[in-house]
């Protein structure tokens, strides 16, 4: 689904205030090979529920770093069962136990942090995208999360030209809490991303 930047800007103006399910239906209807990615962080359940309401069989790519909290793993299993998610699991090529023995989790100023991020997040993600070759990529990016994400919108293009669709981009936590309550969906806040260190730092997937 090749769109020009001008077309994307026009659509973003149209999509502001439009219900997420309508945006998702539009994107699925215009794309050929859509996927949604998740790490089961807080509020991810909203995008997972919204896309599966439109297409139950949509591939759900989960790149598991191997460092999630027990709460996140239990939350993931609950959502996979509750929503009937078509999970496509991708994990690092090296186990976390092996990496812990030889590297650990490097701090952000450690030269090994870049290699660590490549191993646990970027390589599995690239492998997933290479195998699925999506033209539409649903995410739960939202305005206010990071400086980079503030420069995006409901629709944006990835560095590889994939159309990223973030139906909840303009939503606040309060609005998402109401959405979760309305649909009887659980949330989980005990989440850990070993590659970000700082909450407002990008991990590399969206840069």
UniProtKB/TrEMBL annotation:
Phosphoadenosine phosphosulphate reductase domain boundaries: 34-187
Pathway: Sulfur metabolism; hydrogen sulfide biosynthesis; sulfite from sulfate
Residue spans crossing the bilayer: none
UniProt-listed SUPFAM superfamilies: Adenine nucleotide alpha hydrolases-like
Pfam families: PAPS_reduct
Family: Belongs to the PAPS reductase family. CysH subfamily.
Protein name in UniProt: Phosphoadenosine phosphosulfate reductase family protein
Organism: Flagellimonas marina
